[in-house]
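> example.struct
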């Protein structure tokens, strides 16, 4: 039925789009992936997300849902019969949401700044912030995982998706910035290997080499724009 059709507006390099794709895979939801071209915004995107005008957007039937973490929560709630993504315990669910917000609001901006900063104090500050954030997430992993392979325990959960969306970009930042990030955190390093090898992830996780080329283009374009 048309009302059951699922479409995802996105672009393969986006860590936020990756979150939605992984959640859909976990729930085994068939969907159509509509690729947005870099630097342009389709009419469907502008219509579906007129407030932020950005990807990802999940279109379920005629209903658009925007913002990656909200999309993941929607997928978990609507397809409730599939594997659970958010923790069932209210406190654990709140903790997972807290760290997911921390990743987006605090940690990733520092990690991204490593690429954009010139050598010197700015890069040093960004690197310090990113490493300190990963150390906090290393501790959070030990508490949330209960000895399992993932933040969600034995299976990928909400916080795994929140951080795991950035896994490819972490590798790119380490390479381009000539820095060590996740390598400083042995538990997160092992977590990353398990995450990348999971059936819901391995076919949609972008190749590091391809992401590397995209990152070089974005950094060059951003720095050139900043000079004008």
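> example.seq
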């Amino acid at each position: 039925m048309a009302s059951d059709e699922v479409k995802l507006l996105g672009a393969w390099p986006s860590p936020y789009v990756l979150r939605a794709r992984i959640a859909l895979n976990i729930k085994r939801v068939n969907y159509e992936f509509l690729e947005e071209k870099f630097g342009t915004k389709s009419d469907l995107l502008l219509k579906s997300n007129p407030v932020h005008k950005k990807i990802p957007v999940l279109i379920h039937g005629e209903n658009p849902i925007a913002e990656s973490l909200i999309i993941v929560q929607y997928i978990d709630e609507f397809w409730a019969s599939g594997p659970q993504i958010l923790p069932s315990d209210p406190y654990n669910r709140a903790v997972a949401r807290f760290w997911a917000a921390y990743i987006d609001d605090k940690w990733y901006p520092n990690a991204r700044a490593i690429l954009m900063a010139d050598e010197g104090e700015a890069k040093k500050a960004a690197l310090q912030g990113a490493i300190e954030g990963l150390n906090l997430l290393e501790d959070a992993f030990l508490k949330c995982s209960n000895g399992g392979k993932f933040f969600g325990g034995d299976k990928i959960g909400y916080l795994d998706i929140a951080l795991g969306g950035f896994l490819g970009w972490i590798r790119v930042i380490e390479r381009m910035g000539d820095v060590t990030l996740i390598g400083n955190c042995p538990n997160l390093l092992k977590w990353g290997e398990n995450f990348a090898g999971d059936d819901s992830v391995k076919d949609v996780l972008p190749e590091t080499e391809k992401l590397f080329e995209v990152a070089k283009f974005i950094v060059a374009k951003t720095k050139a724009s900043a000079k004008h």
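> remarks
The chain has two domains: 2-78, 90-217.
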